[in-house]
Amino acid sequence: MSNSKNLHAQVKIMLSSSDNRKDPSFGRGAAILLRGVQMNGSLNKTAKDLHMAYSKAWGMIKKVEESLGFKLINRYGARGSELTEEGRKFLDLYEEYERRVEAYAAEAFEDVFRDF
């Protein structure tokens, strides 16, 4: 059948420090913000690049930091921001985990839907 040509695996990865699914989680959005801070040296510039209000970006990071129990970003006011060492390590681990899960999902999808 040709139906599988129109289908693809899509995986949403969220990490949470709690069993309560309403607690702030770390996912692709937070990872994009952190990678932007690492590249730009500024949460404000990253938020602008993503067409996001700075207050929303700051709120996301603050909630995730509270949930995780450690700082992700050092903020220096008008001089910008940078990832903490723990924030950088966490981001790298998250992105590696995300790559592995997406690769597994693509492989499993191909195996399961091979004949569809």
Question: What characteristics describe this protein?
Answer:
mainly alpha, 4 helices, Arc Repressor Mutant, subunit A, 116 residues, two-stranded antiparallel ribbon
Write a structural description:
The chain is mainly α and 116 residues long. It has one domain (27-112): Winged helix-like DNA-binding domain superfamily/Winged helix DNA-binding domain (Arc Repressor Mutant, subunit A, Orthogonal Bundle). The protein contains 4 helices and 2 strands. It has helices at residues 28-40, 43-49, 54-68, 85-112, and strands at 73-75, 81-83. The protein has a two-stranded antiparallel sheet with strand order 1-2. A hairpin with a 5-residue loop joins strand 1 (73-75) and strand 2 (81-83). Helix 1 (28-40) crosses helix 2, helix 1 (28-40) crosses helix 4 and helix 2 crosses helix 3. The chain is elongated. The mean pLDDT is 91.
